[in-house]
Every structure is written in structure tokens, then in C-alpha cells.
Protein 1
Amino acid sequence: MELGAVIDGVDADALLEIPLVGLGFREPLADWILSMPEEIDCLELTAEHFFDHGEDLLEKLRDLYPLSVHGLGLSLGTPGAIDQETLNQFQRVADVANARWISEHIAFTKTEDVDLGHLNPVPLTRKSLKVLVDHARQVMDVCQRPLILENITSYLRLPEELLEADFINQLCQQAGAGLLLDVTNLYINSCNHRFDALEWLHRLEPSVIKQLHIVGYSYHDGVWHDRHCEPIQDELLELAAQVVSYAPVESIIIERDGVLPPVSELELELQRVEDVCETARCS
Amino acid sequence: MSVGGSTRIKKICTCGKKYLVRAELGGKRGKCKCGSVFTVPKHAAKPAARTKKCPWCSVKIEISRVSCQDCERRKMRTSLANRTLPAVEWKIASIAVTTAMLVLVCAIWQSYLNETHFFLLYGCFLALCFLGGILTRVIGFTRKLVMVIALGFIVVGAVRYSHDVTLGIQQFHGLRLMMVFGTIAIALAPFIDVLLGGIEKRSEESHLSNCSAAEWGNIRSGYSGPSITPGYGSHYVGTSGFMAGGCTSSSCGGCAG
């Protein structure tokens, strides 16, 4: 049985556990990140960025921060075998980084012949579920690390046998994986497909949520997008706070890509997220 | 219990669990859920930043301040009560005067100005130097020089054209080009703070070298609406050919999903 954290002679209230707050590592930020700013607690590395190079950098980062490794191209939703070479490279990166856990998307990015170049939603059917479960287990067997799976944004509504939240619950349960809940993706889907994000969340088994992704959404021509280019909006922080208040979230990663903001802005965002977590856990 | 991070000490256990501890408990021993014993640091966590940007140089400042200390000092120097210029200001002022003199000599040489033109031009340059001095204090260090040089050529060009003095311009295409670019620089002056501020911040603070707008524009040119700009639209630069065309910047660290 897990014991609660305590401080000698003081009430349990004195020690507040909150998620680590960190960033998705991007090479242009390397100098800043290596200077170990106080705001960064942990990092998430994109595996594909280190497939061909960067082992020295990986080792440096490993010594400074708790790391997790995030994959883009394993294509767990594609029926058939996982590309062995990609999986081996993924495993190598996870090993060098000594990743606390690894993550991938609930999606497919390629067929047998074609690399589609995008994360595509899988049909929410029992057949897809089996494919994903098998592949998730295989990845964990090879990498020997916990795996968490991320929900994606989708502009399509595919035929479904299961609700998405139920699909994820079953996937995590059967594969023994956790959930990387992308709060922004959830929010965007809820806006584009007009459903209640909180209702979706409450259908989800809280214990599977291990990590959050968050970044500002973009809005263009009546459609919400996840371009990873915007500061985090308040409604996303509220949604994240909801999750943190009841789920055992261990870390929150801010994902910024494209035109990265000045580090002072990133510091502020990290601080905001930490404040939100603190408030959520206090309440 | 206070919230907001202002009165708490952050402690991350070796197992990766993160705790916030009330500041008055600094120095006490604690025990993590994993069983590890740790000592709470005595120093409180950095107070939660409530900041904004300095309206002059875009540096991060506390919300209660009007501008950053450097800009405040610059503005102070504009007052008659405090006219002592530090070395760096003298250096800039001397460069401004030298630039003005060079432009003046160049203009006379080219245009065979008569006496009236000369004094008119000279008056303009005095005004220019004065303006340069103000700019030195009001706006940042590097951008001032751009402004002074640009203004110099604008003034020379205006005077020459107003007196129909075109001799020399035909022979000195470089000068003409500088006049044109000077005009552009003036037109961009309202935005120069943003442009240079951003560049300086990136190079000095973080060495951020991002994809240029054009590069990202190229990437996105493949988009044809929402069906191809899904949430994962901008983040694939990988070995597997994510994103049509991929990011063309050698400096881009790529993106993640």
C-alpha cells in the first residue's frame, strides 16, 4: 500500500503534491533548457528528432531532467506488424534518455505502402481496439517501459462501435497502458464536433490519466486547430485544472512548435500552469 | 493556505514526485510517497511572476512598473537636471555626428550646393543630430543608429530633390539606393521596436533560431483547408516524411505531435 507523503511533526496538509510541469524539447531552446531554468521540472523528447543524431544531447538532458519520450511514427493503429526499424530506433532513444515512460498516439500514420504524413483517427471499433492493444503491448515489451497513449484531434467522424472515452478506457485497461490526455485536442474536438468536454472527461477512468499535453488552440474560418503556435488560453487551463483536481496526473507538458516564443513567455506559461495545478490540488 | 506559488517551496523527489511545501517549513525533513526522505530547502520558491512587457524594449518587467530600469534610466537622461552622458551614449552621439558629417560632405561633393542649400542642409543636420540624441535615450541602443542614418539620407534626398539637384545621383547609385532604403526604414520605424526587440531577445537570451515566416509559409502552402490542416498539421518533421515538404529550416528543431 502506498503511504502518503508527510513532513515531520506537521499536518499532511503541509505537503502538496502537484504534477511536474515541463516542455516538449525543441532544439532551438536547447541552450535555455540546458541552463536549467527553475520553471522547467521535466522534459518530453520527440523520439524521431533523435533517430539519427543527438545522443550527446540526450545524455546531457538525461542528467538534468526527468525525461519522457514521445513518438510520432510508430503508427500503432495500422493493422499488421509495427515497422521494426522504427521501433528499434524508438527503443534506443528511450534507453539513452532513460525515459520514465514512453508515449504514442491513438492513431495511424501509415498504411502498408504509404506514409500518410499525418496522425489519422482510427475507427472506434473492437477490431481497431485489438490492433492498438497488441501494438501497445509489443512496444512496451520491446522498450521495457510504461507506455501512455495520446488522444488526437480529428476532423472526421468515423463509424463507431464504442464511444471514444469507452474506447480509451478499454484500450488502457487491456494494454496495461496509461493515457496522455491532450487537453487542447479534447477541447478542439469538443468545439469542432460539438460535444461537452467535461462529460467526455467524466466518462474516462481517472486512474489512467498520467500526463497532460497543453498548448493554445488556433481558430480559423469557424474551425478550431491545434497548430501548437498559440499561448494557452484560459479555457484550456480551466479544463486542465479540472483534470488535475481529480486525476493522478504526474506531469504536464507544454507543446510549442513553429515560431517559438521568447523564453520569457515560456517561463510565464510554465509558471501559469504550475499555479493552476497548485490551485486545483488545493481545492 | 495560500495558493499561487508565492509562499511555497518546491521540492522534487528523486522518484519524480513534486511537492510544494509551506515556506515556514523550510529546513524540515519530509518523506515522499516512495519512501525517500528529503529535506525541504530553506528558500521559498520564486514568487509567482506577474509581469508584462516594457513598452520600450519588450523586456519582461513587473506589472507594477511603467518600464524597465534601463529605459527608465534612458528617459531620466533626457531631463535637463541630469545631462551626464555615460561613455556608451557619447559613443553613439559621436557616431551620429560623424554619420551626419559624412552624408553632408557626400551631398556637397555630388551636388555642388550653393551657399543657401548648404546652410539649409546644415540646419537640417543639426535638427537631425538633436533628434538622434533624443532617440538615443528614448529607443534602444542599436536601433537608434539605423534611425539616424536613415534620417540623414532622407533629409539629404529631400533637400536635393526640392532644389532639383540630381547631379551626382546619376553617378552614385549606391547613395540613391540608400535613400530608398532609408525611406523604407523610416516607414518601418513604428515597428522597429518589435522587429529588433524580438531579434535581440532571441539571440541574446535564448539563441532561438526559428523557422522564418517564409519557411513556414512554404510548409503551409500545401494546406487546402481544414481537412488538411488538422490539429497535427504543423508538427511533423521527421524521418518518415511527415508534413508535405517538411520544414525547410536547417535551424528548426522540428515539431512534435
Note: The mean pLDDT of chain B is 55.
Protein 2
Amino acid sequence: MRSQPTPEARHRRRLRTPVLVVTALAWAATLAVHLLPATSGHHLHGARQLHTMQHTNDMPGMPGMSGMLPGAGTGSPSNGSLSTGSLQMFLLGWPFMLTAMMAPLLVPVLRHVHARSLPSRRRRTLTLLVAAYVAVWTAGGLVLFGLAAAVRAGAGSGAVAIGSAIAAAALWQLSPLKQRCLNRHHVQPLIAAFGRPADRDALRFGGTHALWCLGSCWALMMVPLLFDRWHLAAMAVVTLYLWAESFDPPAPPAWCPRLPVTAVRVVSTVVKPG
Amino acid sequence: MTYTRPNVWELGGEWAEPILWYARGVAAMRERPLSEPTSWRFYAGIHGFDRQLWRQLGYLGASDRLPSDALRRRFWAQCQHGSWNFLPWHRGYLLAFEQVVRAEIVRLGGPADWALPYWDYFKPGQNALPPAFARPDWPDGGTNPLFVPARYGPAGDGKVFVPLNNVNLRAMNERAFTGVSNGASPGFGGVDTGFSHSGRIPGALESQPHNMVHVLVGGDNGVLPGVMTVPDTAGLDPVFWLHHANIDRLWESWNRATPSHRNPTGARWAAGPAGRGQRAFAMPKPDGSTWTFTPGEVTDLVTLGYTYTDLPSAIAAAPPAEPRERLARPEIAARLEGARPVPEDTHVELVGTSPGPVPIQGSDIRSHVRLDAGMRRKVTARLAPALRAVGSPAAAPEQVFLNLENIRGQSDRAAFDVYVGVPDDQDPAAFPDRLAGSIAPFGLRKASAPDQEHAGQGLTFVLEITQIVDQLHLDSSFDVDTLPVRIVPIGPVAPEADVSVGRISIFRSGR
């Protein structure tokens, strides 16, 4: 039976397709940012530092990424202070990392705002919403960066730091607060259509949506920040998990295991033979 | 064998055989404990379950043992609303329920060809609750199993009927089964969704008459809602099944009205949510096994071996109140006949909105939609006869929709009439041609809870107002900055219920 797209499916596709293209480009850029310093001899301060760090850390297998990680490459995990170079590298890679991880999660919101705003203001409204979203996430990202540096400094070893972050993430995943954040993350509030109230609502919606998104994702996002060699792989795994859990509908908050059941079923249905 | 569902008002008597056997079947199901999948209350739980409300209404006692977690996960809280699954899921639900009742009837020595009657409240003289449901006694002695004390009716006084001025068959004029969620028509059957136990935007038939009949028949007594009023209790009322048999009949009638009234055919529809790894539609069978079905398997009523005694091929809505010259225009006539599919190049655009939320308090709520000047000109230009005449036959017709977005509140009884273009100082009752529609946000309380499936966003309703806008344009009343919208509650809405419309908006759909 040939599947004809429904009108709703056509509308979904109109916005989802460009966002997925942007996401793919962001992943390519993220990869490039982490490969570039080591392969082309770019002379960014952070890149130079990174090159040195790779040698001192004796981690030749994964060039680039560890340079943007908090406290990485200092030679000793206990000396995990927030260096200027690593912060620069973090900020350089951050726009790509944020886009790569979060853009698909924004599709329902972008679709909602696109549909419910005046055609003459759509571009402005969407721009303000995304700007607020990025601003709040960037502030949150810097906090996460600092937190990761502190964990590194306090942990004594990379393995302990990663183990602690995984334990914290697991606890957060089980908590009712996580579910509350996920539920609020599904909210698509109404926005004003005209004038300053429309701008204000777009900024407010983008900001609050980013806050709930941050609340849902922060613990899991900490984990790849603590990986040196396997940072990109950890980031990919965490991203897939975050995308997967967004498929589940809101639920009453409670202490309970929270697995991305819907996404797992979808994938298993697609890949099963016949 | 073909089972024929009869009209409950035309059985030949208050306790004619089909309704008497229905009562006996219901009584037999009621005797089974809640934990048994073929019991009366278990089947109601398949539609929805609210522990507190079941207790308050006397359907869950301290000694009751709930079904196991596994059974509840498989069967309970399954009903599909605000979705294109609404009609197929309820068809399957009816078929399964009917099988269980029929098995009980046969066990008691009744007819093996028994089929569920339907309640056609639109037929002249048949809008009152069928008498067998309205009295506490019955021929077999004891309490009538079809009688439900918590069935309060439109005025909350126990007089149960369907006020014909609050229900309509406009859905039968919808051209396409499935629609969109972006402001234009959600279609006859609803928007393409996954598993949707409580979706946000109902399809046309789900909204009217389905939702309205639920809310008006159930009503409330000022303290508690009636059983039919809330999705989580509705299946506990025996009249629920006759109401849904009528909704199912209307679906079949829509299919037969014109060849263009087709159900979806794609794999996404046919396989249903289970085809995408979501929860399957599953019903307990009389022999203890499980019937799992998909929308594609219940689309064809003939193949299922069912029909109705009265299945007109063209149930039509009342003719729109519109000047003759407008009706004569080929574009409008085509739209009313539902003769054209939705073109792919249809664009949906916002034309204007209310300045903010609109609280539903009092008996007459005045609000306004501010119109964007450019979009307003676009609408009027495309409604103009000259442009219509040059439009290609395949082009999307210009349509205008009123959206009542994100309705929220703590009452399940709320229902209201919505008028467009009635001046603030005029009585809307004097403008029946400006009535955009009557809506009943069935399931409102749950839809407003932040940690339920809706994330607290409430419900959104879409009413087509093309003809009203066309008329306003002819009268030069659409060339304004703000358009009045009046909301008139059907029955009082308590202020503490905090019912509000998040935003009133107008959308255009067309080229």
C-alpha cells in the first residue's frame, strides 16, 4: 500500500526537513571544529593549547575535542581549572554543538509559532524566539562548563569524574523533577500576534522553553563534557537519548525509571524484518 | 451474517425485545467483578479511568480489586480523542463491546443476531432520552440496569434530552476525512496523530454532535459531573453505547454521501499507532482472548458484517442561512457538496487574534478579534466573485476559520455558542446567521492538568466562518480593525471553574 502524505504530514515536513538539514550541517561543523586544529595547523590560541594538551594527556586517538573541555589537558585531573583557551574552544564549538543536539527538539515549537503568528511577522517572531532560546541555553552551557570543571577538579581522576556524572544523571533521570521539566517542555503557549506584545511573547517563550529544555537535559549533557577521548561519541549517544525521550507524552511526575519507550518501539518496528 | 443495528426509538415499544435483551446483557456484565476483562466497569475503564471520580460517583468501592497492572496497561485508558483515530477506535470499541453483550444474551437464551440499537437524536421526536433508560425499574424486576442516576441533562435537573438548537450536522459537509492542526479545518475525522488518548483538536464529527451530546446528556448537579460528561466515566452509562452507535452510523453515512468522501488509505492510517511502535488498539473478547485491531481493519462496515436500519446516503446539514445569490456561486456550491479534495497548495495563514485570553464568566461574553489589515484585504479579495470566477477548478477555495485556542478550566460541563460579527449592543439570539457554532470541550478538566497528556494546554476548536465573513463582507462589516466575537454559555459556568479561551483567532485557508 502506497502511503499518501496527509495534509498534516505535509505541514510537518515543510519545517522539519530544513531543520534536519541544519542539524546535519551542525554535526558536520562540530566534527570539523574538533578535527581542524589538529590537522590544519590553525593558530587559534585554544587550538595551540589543544595540540599541546593532546601530547601531555597522551590521548592521540581523538584530536581536538578535549581542548574545549573544562580543565582538560592540564596534565592532571586535580588541576582542572577553567582555562581561557578551553573556554574559547568551548565557545567556538558551542553554537554547533547546541544546534546539533537541540535543533530537532525545537521542531514542534517552531511549527507551532510559525502556524500561529501573522505571515508578515513570522520571520521576526521566529528569530526572537530562537535568539532567546540560544541565549538562555548558552548561559546554561557556561554554567555546565564551570560545573564540569569543578567536578574534574574535585574528582581526583577522570574516571571518578565521569562515574560521578553518570550517577548524578541516572538519579536525575529517575526523579519527578525530570518528568516535570519534560512535561513543561511539551507546552506550546499562545503568543500575541501584534506589536511589542508579540515580540515579548516570542522572547519569553524562547527563554522559558530553553529553561525547561535545560532542566530536562543538563544532567545528561554533563556526561560528554567530562569525556576527553570519547567526547563526540558520548555526545552522540546523549543526543540520541534526548531525541528519543522527547517522543514520550507528558506523564505524572514520580520517582520511576524513565526509558524512551515510544522511540524504541518505533525503531524496532522500522527495523524488524517483514 | 450481517448484523443490523436498529433505531432505539423505532423498536416497537419501550421495552421491545432488542432493548430488553440489551438490559439483560448489561445486567450480566454488571454482575462480574471489576477485575474481569468482560465486566461492565472493566469495559468502561477501557475508555478512561479516574479513581477519584469513580469513587465519588459510586463506581469504585473499598472492596473492589482493580485489574492487574498488566491488564490495565494493555486495555485501559485507550480511547482516542482529538485524532483521526477517534472514529476507527470507537468503531472497534463498539464491535468488541457488542460481542461481549451478545455472548451474555445468547447465554441467557436470547437472539444470536442481536445488535446494539442507536440513538438518532436528530430525527423528529427522538431527541429525548429513550424511555427504557429513563426509569429506575424494568420488566425483570429490581433496579433497571440501563438507568443511571448521575445523568443530569442540559439544565442539570435530571430531564435528559438533546436540545436540537445546540447540536448540528455541519460535519457531514466536511470535504476531507483528515485535516490540519494549524488553524484550518481539522477534517471530518480528525488530524493525523499517533496514539492520542486525549488529543487537543477534535475533528468535525467528534466536536459536533459527539462532544455536545456527551456534555448535554451528562450535565452536572452543581457538585459532580454526570457520568456521560467526562471521558473517564462516560463508558459507565449504557446510553454511551447508543450514542456512539449513532456517531458510527454518521461516519458510514458520510462515506456514502459522495464518492469523494473517502477514508484515508495510506499505510500510516491503516496500520494505526501500533504500526509506528505505539500502543495497539486492544479489546477483551468474550472467550478471554484479546482482539487487536488497526484502523485499516475497521474502515469498511460491510466487510465487518454490519449495517444500520436507516443509513441514508446523504445526511446533510441544514442549508446555510445565506442569500440565494451566494448559494448560486459555483465555488460555494462545490464546497457545500463536498465534491473536491483538499488541494496540496493550500496555505493557512493567521488573519487576526484577540488581544489576550478571554475568561468565560457570566452569561454573555464580549470579545474582539483584531484583524491584520493586509490579511483582511487578502481574504476579501479572494472572496470576491470576480476572482473566484477566474480561479482554476483545482485551486483551493478560500475558507475562513475561527479558532478558540487552548480552552482551559476546571469544569467538564462547559459548553457555549459562538457568534461572529454581532455588534456589542445587540442580542446575539437575534442573529442566528452569525452563529459560528456550538462547542463543548469534552474532557476539559483533564486537558487543563499540567502533568497529563495535554501538558495543561487545554483544547482547541475550529469553526468554519466563511459564509459569515462572506456575508459581513457583502454588508461592508468585515472592513474593520476589530471583529466582535460573542460567547454565550449553554448553561451557567461557575466562576470558580476558571474556564477561559486562551486566544480567539481567525485563519484563512486557500491559495
Note: Confidence is low (pLDDT under 50) at residues 39-67, 73-81 of chain A.
